[in-house]
Amino acid sequence: MKQNFLEGSRGTDIRQKKLGVLIGGSGLVGGALIHYCKTRKPDAIELLSPNSKKISLREPGDIKQYFRQYRPDFIINCAITTLDSDAQLTYETNYLGCINLARAAMALKVPYIHFSSAATLPDGEELTEEQTLPLSANLSNYAKSKLMTEKTLRHLHETGGLDYTLIKLGVVYGTHDHKVQGFHRLLMTIARKSLLFMMTSRGTCHSYTCCNKIPPFVDYLLAHREEFSGQTYHFVDREPVELGRLILSIKSTLGISVPKEIYIPYPLARFGTNCLQWILRGLNRLGIEARLPPELMFMENCYATQTLSTAKLKGSSYGIPEPETTVFTELPAIIDYYVARWAHLNLVPAGNVCFVDPLKQAEGFAHNPQHLIEAIHSGRIDPLADFAELRETEPAPQG
């Protein structure tokens, strides 16, 4: 039974709740887990998600102090540094930080849920959980750190009894992520009309992961530790996705004319990227800050098939969740959410956006703000919320 350390500040007795700590709550996966606990498990789980100012994975002292104060029932880690971080930052964050969290879980004798990536896998079809790339200096810093973490977690389980589950994801898609990375980087590139031709080859397929499916799985495996402890699972949609088909589906949904269905060979795409890097280095020397998206380090993967087997997950007591939900069924909602948001932030051309302004005030704000504010002040239009109910409500007692 947990000490009621949040009762005074939040007015909620959490002594009957399970207390969890989530590292990496600002990302797509972490945000989905927080939302799930708040909306689906508010009376069962209290999930804390400290930011990097409260607990830095590069500072073991931060980890010790935080878990000394909050002794959770489980720890979830889905934090990573940026893809193009240097060797030291990647090693200290993605490897040492993750393993220190695992060692903290061992000391507390609680489950540790760790998210990994298909970047640790070779190319191929129906790859199993046992298959990984050989650990070598030639791997990217990101893949190297992820692979080292997987190996050490298994070592800690075998030698120290670490109760962990490793979840390996494919290309994650979903809404409500304010970072532009992975699948969303591809979507933004197409929405900007920056992708003129198909930067892939015909038939190249990858495994995708629906973000909304992840939280119920984590909830289930926390409740069934005997089956899932010490195990690695590929958590991806049942059917792989052909990248070319996905690109053309996004183009069709947006109603734009590019990219053209002309497939660029990999050597030519690599040459073009190298030329861009040379130009950007020249601009940086002139004081103009510019850089290519870090996802370009995985451009080779756009030309090689990599699909993950779901046989182990299907054979578990959990099974394959919602097989009818795919990136194609979710694509309209994803595009509506992100492209509208990016247009508001001037990240994509507004002409590409098919969203509705129900109050029809955006045009007035852009072109005739004086007329708009006069209409608001005179009461001809009333776009503001009504807070009269607050005057009628008795203030909550303090203390």
What is the count of DSSP helices, taking H or I runs of 4+ residues?
15
Going across the biggest sheet, name each strand in turn: 2-1-3-4-6-11
Shape by Cα distribution: globular
Determine the N-to-C terminus distance.
23 Å
CATH-derived architecture of the largest domain: 3-Layer(aba) Sandwich
The number of domains: 3
CATH homologous superfamily designation of the largest domain: NAD(P)-binding Rossmann-like Domain
- Unreliable stretches covering 5 or more consecutive residues: 1-14, 352-356
Portion in strands: 5-15%
**Overall CATH class of the largest domain:** Alpha Beta
Largest sheet: 6 strands, parallel
Give an overview of the whole structure:
Helices cover 42% and strands 14% of the residues. The protein has 399 residues and is an alpha/beta fold. It folds into 3 domains: 1-170 and 207-239 and 307-322, NAD(P)-binding Rossmann-like Domain (Rossmann fold); 180-204 and 241-304 and 324-355, no CATH class; 362-392, no CATH class. Strands 2-1-3-4-6-11 form a 6-stranded parallel sheet, with helices on both faces. Helix 2 links the parallel strand 1 and strand 2. Helix 6 packs across helix 9. The two termini are 23 Å apart.
